[in-house]
Write a structure and sequence with these properties.
Layout lengths: L7 H6 L1 E2 L5 E3 L13 H8 L2 E2 L2 H10 L4
Antiparallel strand pairs: 1-2, 2-3
Length: about 60
């Protein structure tokens, strides 16, 4: 059976933790930052985890991570 191919854009966006959770960055931090408050932008800096419902699909996209 041939090897699976990694979805390259997903591999760049997500990383796996030792416990098996998938880490991701928060959205809405790239542009149009002038109208967002400092508090909101500060909170967007922190990473978060993918929901368990989505994690199953993402794990298929990054099989070797």
């Amino acid at each position: 059976m041939p090897k699976q191919k990694t979805h390259r854009s997903s591999a760049k966006r997500f990383s796996l933790t030792k416990s098996g959770k998938i880490k991701r960055a928060k959205a809405f931090k790239k542009h149009i930052l002038t109208k967002k408050t400092a508090k909101r932008k500060r909170r967007l800096r922190k990473g978060t985890y993918v929901s368990p419902a989505e994690a199953k699909n993402i794990k298929k996209l990054i099989p070797y991570k």
